[in-house]
Amino acid sequence: MLLSGCVATNTPYDYSALENSRPRSILVIPPLNNSIEVNAPYIFLSTITRPLAEKGYYVFPVAVIDRFLKENGLPTPVEMNGIPLDKIAQHIGADAVLYVAIEDWGQKYQLVSSTTVVHSTLRLVDVNTGVLLWQATVRGVRSSDDAGAGLLGAIVNALATQIGGSVTDYTPGLSSFSNHRQINDSASGLLHGPYFNPDGTILWRTGNVRGAAVRDVGLVFNSMARGEIAAKSYDEELWAEALEMAAGDEQKQKEIYVELRSKQLANEKMQH
Description:
By secondary structure, the chain is α/β, with parallel strands linked by helices. Helices cover 38% and strands 25% of the residues. Strands 1, 2, 3, 4, 5, 6 and 7 form a seven-stranded mixed sheet that branches. A four-stranded mixed sheet has the order 8-9-11-10, with helices on one face.
């Protein structure tokens, strides 16, 4: 099996528009589907939220947005993609919109091989100005071959994959892998958002008693979760302080940061 994603470009991406806009929240519009796979848009939607959230952005729940738009007279992705930006700003309040077009999707079978393909284009647009902030092409291929077993082995392998493929859909995993790879590409990926945690995850846990999670719903103190604190964002000054206090010890840096941030959030909560 071979997994492949986008190949990074040698030309540095121009991030000036994204840096000037500094969006905090992203609305993902249900994709336009140019493939023959009817389920492609919803499979894609199930794989895009996590990499965007891990990159540091608040992502409006895709299922809720899909239902909201359908209930308000927009039953198809074509109509959803035509919503004026001022209406999105007025009724949803997103900072940026991610438009997606699926160009190719699904499993393709040939005589001696089978291939799963996902191919989509992404466009991130500022809701207030209409300026294009970032764009990318996501491609992923999952291939099977004869693995050195000769023509007969290749035919048998292709038949087995086709039979297995009738009950196993490889596109969710491939889409997740490809989206994550492109969004985090060092040359042309998406810049970190305001809610990015330095360890690259949505949730930090230190021991069994304390954690810090990225949420855009204010400060949440959950006594049912063993004292976990849901933090709206990380604090750059506190992180710099933790780096200085535990130079070279990444785990200790995280522990110190969470300790400092926990106290800061507790003070903010008391003031409010």
